[in-house]
Amino acid sequence: MSMLERALLALFALLVAALSVAALAVIAGWTVPLDLFELSLLRPDYRLIAGLVAAVLFLLALRFFLASMRPAAAREEQAVIKSADLGTASIALPALENLVTRAARQVKGVREVRPILRVLPEGLAVKLNITVSPDRNLPELTAALQEKVHEYIVATAGLEVLEVQVRVNGIYQEGLRRVE
């Protein structure tokens, strides 16, 4: 929220609060706010001021109503690659997912990869959900996969990889071939 929006919201809150206090005072039996309202309707110069206050309240209410209906912009998570005197260089999460997928596909026996990444202050945590070929030794394949993803991300993106967790979700089954 920008500074202008915060100032407008504060103004709107103060005006609504003042009108609420006046309404509560009238309900409690204090007639001065009613007398002032009646006076503002009788004299043309006060009527103009009352109309301006009502217009400002309406426009502010409309502004905040429309802002609340607008979908929030998705904040894209990213990891800092390098921070230097001239600024920082970062990489977006989808780009990191592509790098992880590319590294995982280089391991023989991996058929499908669905990476889940978490960017932490200490580094990158990688979870891989994979489908593998049926003729592979799973402990060897997962160890090779962890090593390959770790090395590839460190070498390519320069990020510290804290962990690479692998979950084998399925064994790839080729369709049965019919003999005719």
Mean pLDDT: 86
CATH topology of the largest domain: Alpha-Beta Plaits
Biggest sheet: strands side by side, in what order?
A: 3-4-5
Structural class: alpha+beta
Q: From the coordinates shown, what is the CATH architecture of the largest domain?
A: 2-Layer Sandwich
**Given this structure, which CATH class of the largest domain is correct?**
Alpha Beta
| Helix percentage range | 40-55%
Beta-strand proportion: 25-35%
Mind describing the biggest β-sheet? Answer: 3 strands, mixed
Q: What is the number of domains?
A: 2
Number of helices: 5
- CATH homolog superfamily of the largest domain: Cation efflux protein, cytoplasmic domain
CA gyration radius, whole angstroms = 31 Å
Order of SSEs, N→C?
A: HHHEEHEEHE
**What would you call the shape?**
elongated
Parts with pLDDT < 50 across at least 5 consecutive residues: none
What gap, in angstroms, lies between the N and C termini? 68 Å
DSSP E strands, number: 5
Transmembrane segments: 48-66
Keywords: Membrane, Transmembrane, Transmembrane helix
Protein name: Alkaline shock response membrane anchor protein AmaP
Architecture overview:
It comes from Moorella mulderi DSM 14980. Keywords: Membrane, Transmembrane, Transmembrane helix. This is Alkaline shock response membrane anchor protein AmaP. With 180 residues, the protein is α+β, with helices and mostly antiparallel strands. The chain has two domains: 67 residues, no CATH class; 94 residues, Cation efflux protein, cytoplasmic domain (Alpha-Beta Plaits, 2-Layer Sandwich). Helices cover 53% and strands 25% of the residues. It has five helices and five strands. Strand 3 and strand 4 form a beta hairpin. Helix 4 crosses helix 5. The mean pLDDT is 86.
